[in-house]
Design goal:
The protein has 288 residues and is an alpha/beta fold. 55% of the residues lie in helices and 8% in strands.
Length: 288
């Protein structure tokens, strides 16, 4: 262990864990200001660089040290290559108390790529139900070490094919894991079209809707109209009552209308506007 200048330390390129400037970070900064870095960082020397290092473990501590104005930090130095460092990085963070679905997804993918690049998938007895493909063997090794099945690891890796905005919905708890897995098979332009509907209607897909979109894409039957119709179906867990004050609609509805006539007027206006939105989205779909 030795003290390393902050200017000589670089984040691990493509590391999967988010370093957020939130309340936890503020508490860490305060701790660093009062007591310094209590747990040294883990670094590796960068290839073809003189006294330059890449972080294996300690990205949050490094950020806190930057914010606290430290000029150097204590660190352990390990002379490992990038693949070995990637595996160490993933393993040192996977058992954190709070880990987002996106973090676990990209961590599993990073580790799988490193293992495949090294060709090191031995050392673990695989279950009888694990296929003998390289992908299955790799994810089985990762799952064995993380306490999950190879299929679960594969499904997490699938999430890395979601567009960032849909992945954010998963991290925020607004979309289920199984839904994200199904949507990850859709092309990016389809995912963005779906995102437009989600934001417009403030309604995320159910598993059934996501499953049928995936199925329709496999069969070459997925269209914008299909997605619109599918997403317009009411889901029991998303029903709600909407109330409009008379003051808000008075200038739009004839004053002589009674409650029933007013309701009919609003529904017809919404139907007209919805047709307009569909035409707009069909034009956008065709332009992509």
């Amino acid at each position: 262990m030795k003290n390393i200048s902050m200017s000589k330390i670089h984040p691990f390129e493509g590391h999967p864990y988010k370093v957020l400037d939130n309340e936890e970070m503020n508490n860490l900064i305060q701790s660093v200001q009062e007591y310094g870095i209590m747990s040294p960082l883990t670094l590796r020397p960068l290839e073809n660089k003189t006294d330059e290092y890449e972080i294996i473990s300690g990205h949050r501590r490094f950020r806190a040290a930057q914010k606290a104005g430290l000029t150097e930090v204590p660190a352990y130095i390990y002379a490992v290559n990038r693949d070995e460092a990637a595996i160490m990085l993933v393993d040192s963070n996977l058992h954190r108390e709070h880990i987002l679905p996106s973090e676990k997804a990209f961590a599993y993918r990073l580790k799988a790529e490193a293992l495949n690049h090294q060709g090191k998938r031995g050392g673990i007895t695989l279950g009888q139900n694990v296929p003998k493909s390289d992908d299955a063997r790799t994810t089985a090794v990762i799952g064995e070490q993380a306490g999950e099945s190879y299929k679960t690891v594969q499904r997490y890796i699938r999430l890395t094919y979601l567009i960032p905005e849909l992945l954010d919905l998963m991290d925020e708890g607004k979309m289920a894991f199984s839904v994200g897995v199904e949507l990850s098979y859709l092309d990016d332009n389809v995912q963005y079209a779906l995102l437009d509907i989600i934001e417009r209607d403030n309604c995320t897909p159910s598993y059934s809707q996501a499953f049928h979109m995936h199925k329709a894409m496999r069969e070459g039957m997925l269209t914008m109209a299909y997605i619109e119709d599918l997403m317009s179906q009411e889901k029991p867990n998303q029903r709600e009552t909407i109330k409009l004050s008379s003051e808000r609609i008075r200038s739009y509805v004839p004053q002589k209308y009674n409650a029933k006539q007013t309701e009919d007027f609003i529904i017809k206006a919404l139907e007209h506007y919805n047709r307009y939105l569909k035409r707009q989205r069909e034009q956008d779909w065709g332009a992509r």
